[in-house]
Write a structure and sequence with these properties.
The chain has 492 residues and is α+β, with helices and mostly antiparallel strands. The protein folds into two domains: 2-337, Beta-lactamase, CATH 3.40.710.10; 353-490, Calycin beta-barrel core domain (Lipocalin), CATH 2.40.128.20. It has twelve helices and 22 strands. It has helices at residues 13-25, 61-75, 99-102, 106-110, 129-135, 151-165, 169-181, 207-218, 231-237, 301-312, 326-337, 353-356, and strands spanning 2-3, 30-37, 40-46, 56-57, 188-189, 203-205, 222-223, 226-227, 262-263, 269-273, 277-282, 287-293, 360-363, 370-377, 382-389, 392-400, 404-411, 427-438, 441-449, 453-463, 466-475, 484-490. A nine-stranded mixed β-barrel has the order 13-14-15-16-18-19-20-21-22. Strand 15 (382-389) and strand 16 form a beta hairpin. Helix 1 (13-25) runs antiparallel to helix 10 (301-312), helix 2 (61-75) packs parallel to helix 6 and helix 2 crosses helix 7. The longest helix is centred in the first third of the chain and has 15 residues, at 61-75. It is globular.
């Protein structure tokens, strides 16, 4: 990948700068962003402390990688897309299958027109997700009828790849594709508790890794003149196979569904991951957009991000290079060098700070199991929240109107196995900011910025000697202890 100016790529630097300004103005929690024409990068930016070497979880972007692995298996004659999926897993089936699931094909799983709605392994006591998929007791529908998001089905496709190749999903992709691309050197895919790859949600890689794979798909399976995956499969995978509308509302990415790829405006296709891990490919412009973020909990972030992208960047792409504009390019470079991770911001200080400093508040019984808390300010610009939760004394250090980077005070999950608590004392890296929303109202926003992503907001309101905590979290199957309402009184 070579670096060129936006003008050389056929777009003015001022349009790129305006796009980034809009994203920051709306308070999106971006981590990184990259744009390409052909094999050239014309924009690359990282919101500090993220950088080009940062690896993070790509969530459901992983599904598109599984699709390509299925394509390789089809190319090799190991499977047929119209084979029945149940025929590959007789050992996973304990009871007679519902007829609708019995006849379900691999192709129907690729298009998410499956016989079953989503079943969550997080809430079920079964470490083998493929076993759970075939034995979960719920209402079936005829496969091939309607589209509904089936993440568990993508996990079964990942397990299918591992069963027919005898290799882990990552090792198979590395051998057949990643090594040729020269990327994914520090990447990995987490495991599920039974040892399968977590194939629907847990690829961990860099932004440039993702961009290189997006480029590979936009080359329709060819790299440096070498055919790695059949063009016919990738063209089918990245074009509309089924309708994926679920209501009467239009969105940029609900214009159809391919084989684990979403169809977009302008004849494009997308890899989509929770929190806005994204890769958008628009073949007719030879254009690629990739980003990472943690916008979990923001229902409008993706549509705003993509609307801004199409309206400000894609709609202004030219077929030929433009004259260089050193002044606008320098403004864009200055903007890029100053990008910082989102934090909450409010008043610079409050007259209530001195009164609050060091005061202990005792909580009534509450869902978070926080029994007491106190704020401690070193100055107007930094401090920490001390609290007792589940009987443990914990502490969140923060800066006011700015992120303070450290470790979240509770243990995280294993770094290699999903949904399994750590056994080596692993704690997540975090970014914690505090803001005075009113004189008597505080928000603490803690972002998990590790391989896992998540966030929690803790809002504290005070009135005389009383207080309330309103906690909200958005994270996949962790931070459960940071959601709910607590009532407290100042300790006399």
């Amino acid at each position: 990948m070579s670096i060129i100016s936006p003008e050389r790529a056929g777009i003015q630097s001022c349009y790129v700068k305006r796009f980034i300004d809009l994203i920051n103005k709306r308070g999106l929690h971006m981590h990184s962003m990259l744009m390409m024409r052909g094999s050239d990068i014309f924009y690359e930016g990282y919101w500090a402390p993220y950088n080009k070497d940062t690896i993070q979880r790509m969530y459901s972007v992983t599904k598109s990688f599984v699709s390509c692995a299925i394509g390789l298996c089809s190319d090799d004659g190991l499977i047929g897309l119209d084979d029945k999926i149940a025929d590959y897993f007789p050992d996973k089936i304990d009871t007679p299958l519902d007829e609708n699931l019995k006849d379900q094909t691999i192709r129907q799983m690729l298009t998410m027109t499956t016989a079953m709605p989503e079943c969550s392994w997080f809430s079920e006591n079964d470490p083998d997700r493929t076993h759970l998929y075939f034995n979960y007791k719920n209402k079936r529908r005829p496969a091939g009828t309607v589209w509904e998001y089936d993440s568990a089905g993508s996990q079964v496709l990942s397990s299918l790849v591992e069963r027919v190749t005898g290799k882990s999903l990552f090792d198979f992709l590395k051998e057949r594709i990643f090594t040729h691309l020269g990327t994914f050197e520090n990447a990995k895919i987490l495991k599920t508790p039974n040892g399968d790859s977590w194939g629907d949600s847990a690829l961990i890689c860099t932004l440039r890794d993702l961009a290189s794979f997006a480029r590979f798909t936009l080359n329709y399976g060819e790299h440096n003149g070498v055919r790695l995956l059949s063009e016919s499969y990738l063209r089918a995978a990245t074009t509309k196979q089924v309708d994926n509308t679920e209501d009467g509302h239009r969105a940029i990415c609900n214009l159809g569904y391919g084989y684990q790829f979403w169809i977009t405006e302008e004849g494009g296709y997308a890899f989509l991951g929770m929190g806005d891990q994204l890769a958008i490919c628009v073949p007719k412009y030879d254009f690629i957009f990739c980003c990472t973020a943690d916008n979990q909990g923001n229902p409008s972030s993706r549509e705003y991000l993509l609307t801004s992208l199409f309206d400000n960047i894609i709609d202004n792409l030219n077929d030929t290079p433009l004259p260089e504009n050193s002044v606008e390019l320098e403004k864009l470079k200055e903007q890029t060098s100053s990008l910082e991770l989102y934090c909450v911001k409010g008043q610079p200080d409050s007259p209530f700070r001195e009164k609050l400093n060091g005061q202990v508040y005792v909580c009534d019984e509450n869902p978070m199991n926080i029994s007491e808390f106190s704020f401690h300010f070193d100055s107007a610009v930094k401090g920490y929240l001390s609290y007792i939760k589940d009987g443990n004394e914990l502490r969140l250090d923060f800066y006011v109107n700015k992120n303070r980077f450290g470790l979240f005070p509770e243990l995280g999950y294993s770094k290699d196995v999903g949904n399994v608590p750590t056994t080596d004392g692993h704690k997540y890296k975090d970014a914690v900011s505090m803001a005075w929303m009113q004189d008597n109202k505080i928000m603490i926003f803690a972002q998990i910025i590790d391989e896992y992503l998540g966030n929690t907001s803790l809002i504290f309101g005070f009135n005389d000697n009383k207080a309330a905590i309103l906690a909200r979290k958005t994270a996949e199957a962790f931070l459960f202890g940071y959601e709910g309402l607590a009532i407290a009184k100042r300790k006399m």
